[in-house]
Structures are given as structure tokens and as C-alpha cells.
């Protein structure tokens, strides 16, 4: 086998090419043209060669390896984002507080207020590998947040159409009127079902219902009651559920503690002190950073952060990460709806073809058939739009089911025996005590690493 003075190495990302010295004695006989021939033989793009033609032998002798070609890295586009025009400071000053229970103020807006603007995504730019092949960039994602109730999206600006309470979730920006109750819910007030937000300066006893299309803010305690909000839920004291409380919000749920309750948040669930013997679901994260989760099941779409997990009595405690049961049911429902719409689209397509064929054969359609053709076109276009929207939702859900990249449990204190982690289809039960760790999926296994 013929000895070579140098060898060629291409980086794994195909963005750099190096020449490696193999035989010092043969180097003296090597000419610059030999290097160019070697690069040409390996189909390295001549436009991307960065070889120092004057000092290449000296550099190769000194460093053993020198770079001779470099591709162009792609520049990923930046995601679009929302630029808020308002302050979200909800803390009351000492002067504003009327009692020790007043800790938050309700952010309100007036008609015509510019709430926020959408900053569009950028395209980015593609790159080239050392062979001259195009490397596609990742284009920036569009903002998916929409204007909801009493909010207008004018070009790229969200504008309030009414005085009221601002409510923000991942999907919607809305303005709601507010219902305020000075004291506990009693037989005198009865159940509350309101189109806007609800502010209760008292407690919600067992057996009562509070439903709001906006936010719910309870200054006191929630017992075995039913609370449902289209926005966020804030409970200052806590939830003492007595195994009968059901708390649901499309946005965040924040409280001091949760005990024997069923809690479901469309975004984040935050409990300052503890979550005890409860069934909790959050589409994003469950945060109990300074407290304990003991018993029950906590399920989050992305992350769970807790101080202590389980207890000395080894009470069974389950943490589940990834898509939850409700999301799986929603996915199945979307698939069924997509199948119906697709079948309807085929029927509309067939009807349109029949009418077009008749028009070509006879030269014209009668008045009734012309109206039918116009309706067919409108219904077909609407059907295609619905199919595209549902398919986009399905694609996003299916990606999240198989994507374990961002799933993690962080334990800042202790985790005791009989704690179980479930990451999608993977599970792991702790058989001893662990401290200060992060758990995540690595090489298709649930891994525990020290913080």
C-alpha cells in the first residue's frame, strides 16, 4: 500500500475539512497542487477552500493538522414573539393593602388600549457543507396566540375593545368584566357562573360551584368545591379538598397548598408549600419548589420541580411526564373529526366534478345548479381549511407524544422509597432514598443525575 504524506479529515457536521500529517519525510515532496487534487478527488467545493497556500507546509509541520476548507453554517430564523405594552406587576404596595389578605391587584385595561404587538419571525438563511450541498435552516415559528373576547387584532397589534380585566394564556389574549364578592360564598350568594372573571374576598365552602370564562381569584380557602376557569385560578390560602374538590383552569393554577383534591391546569400548576394525596395535571409544569409532594399522582407535560418527594412512611407517590390521558382522548377525538371531514371533502369533490362535467357537456347550468356549484365551492374551501387546521393540531400532539427532550423531574431535597416516575411509556420506581437530583430520559431509559 502506497504511503501518503497527508490524510484528509471531514468534520462530522461536514462544515470543516482538515489535512493531517501522516509522514514527515514524504511532506517535502508534496506540492500545493497535490493538495488541491486530493480535495478535488474528495469532491470538496473549491469555493470553500481556506488553505494558506504560502505557509501550509510550515503550519502542517508545526501543528500536525491544519484546516483547509470551511462550509457556511445555516442561520436559524428567530421565532416570532409578543412584545407587551403593559406592565404585569400585580403586587400591591403597602398603601394599597386594605388587609393582610390583599396580596394581588387585578390588572385592568381601558377600551382602545394597545395591549401588545406581534413581532413576526425571521426566515434565517441556509448554509453550505464543504461539498457544496445546501444545509437548510430552521425558519422561525409564528406566534399562535390569538385575540379572544373583547380584544381586536389589528394588523400586528392587540387592542382592547372594552374596559375590563386582562387575561392571558398561551392561546388567547382576552379582556373580561369582573364579578366581585366581598366575603364567603353562602346560601345567599349561591353558585357563581359568570362570563368574566370572579374575585372572592373570602372562602369557597364544600358543595359550591364557581365557574368563570375569565380568571378566578379566591382570597381565602377552597374546600370540597368545584372551580372552573377559562383563564387562571389563584387561591391565596389553599385547597382542602376532602376528596371532593375539583379545580380546573385553562391557564395557570397558583395556591399555597393542595390536599385531597383533583386539580387540572392548562398551563402551569404552582403550589408554594405542598401537594398531598391529590390528582394533579398540568399541561406545562408543576412547581412545588419549596414544598413536598406526598401521595397521589402528579402529571405534567414538560417539567415537575419539587423540594421533597414522598415521605418516611413510603407513601406511594407517582410523577408522570409527557402527554396525559386527557390529551390522548383529545387526540383521538381530533382524528375522528379529521376522518369525517376528509370523507365530506371527497363527496364535495365528486359533486363539483359532476356539475363541471355537465357544464362542459351542455355549455351551461340552470339557475338552481349554478347556486349549487357556488355552495359546493364555498363548502369545499371551508372543508379544506378545517382539515388543515385539525391536521396541524394532530401533528403538534403526535410530536409531543414521542418527544422526550424537554421532560424532566427536579428534586431539590429528598425523594423517598416507593416514588414512581413515568415518562411516556417508560417507568421507574425508586427503591431507596435519593437527594438533590434531576431525572430525565437518556438513551431510552429514565436516568437520575445529581444536581
Automatic annotation (TrEMBL):
<dbReference type="InterPro" id="IPR046865">
    <property type="entry name" value="FapA_b_solenoid"/>
</dbReference>
<dbReference type="Pfam" id="PF20250">
    <property type="entry name" value="FapA_N"/>
</dbReference>
<dbReference type="Pfam" id="PF03961">
    <property type="entry name" value="FapA"/>
</dbReference>
<keyword id="KW-0175">Coiled coil</keyword>
<dbReference type="InterPro" id="IPR005646">
    <property type="entry name" value="FapA"/>
</dbReference>
<feature type="coiled-coil region">
    <location>
        <begin position="324"/>
        <end position="368"/>
    </location>
</feature>
<dbReference type="InterPro" id="IPR046866">
    <property type="entry name" value="FapA_N"/>
</dbReference>
<protein>
    <recommendedName>
        <fullName>Flagellar Assembly Protein A N-terminal region domain-containing protein</fullName>
    </recommendedName>
</protein>
<feature type="domain" description="Flagellar Assembly Protein A N-terminal region">
    <location>
        <begin position="8"/>
        <end position="170"/>
    </location>
</feature>
